[in-house]
Amino acid sequence: ALYVGENSYYYLPRFKAISNHTGITWNWSAMFLNFIYFFYRKMYDIGILLLILLIAAQIPSLFIAPEYAKFLLENIQDISIMPVFNPQTNLWAYRIAPFIQYGMILISFLLGMNGNRLYMKHVFSRIRKIKMEFDSAAVFDDRAYTEALAKKGRVSRKAVIFVLIGCFLAYFGSYIAIVLSVYSTMA
Fold this sequence. Notes:
With 187 residues, the chain is an all-alpha fold. It has helices at 8-19, 28-33, 35-40, 44-57, 59-74, 91-135, 142-152, 157-186.
């Protein structure tokens, strides 16, 4: 409970159920928040892996964006009778986009199904490492041990804010750059 911190009343019964093999526990936060959840719970390795996967899933849209931006800029005069967009280039990106979306939905589902199990393994592993550090000392300092559990565990709002700001800047920065480059070629 000291290591988990917030919502330990939620996690501890689920950890027990997982340990007793009494079924699957569901984690809605892991499903819907994806990499954000893992950064929040200080599982940075999984969070980084999911973030890289999300970035890779966006690559086809970077090939689609210039043509679509050009289409929008050419047809912005009368938005009430907007013609249908028919892509002419990078058709491969349009073809694989739905499969990437289905894949990301499947990953989110798997994260929801296994989020508590992943977190439990993370918590137990980190607690064992912290305990080993204190066991190797000449005298076991219980107060320092509980402080270390609380400090190294818990949640990280700073990591979430940092990652979200970085994602926001990268996402909108790339699309602004695409629109500006398309606009400059049209002018």
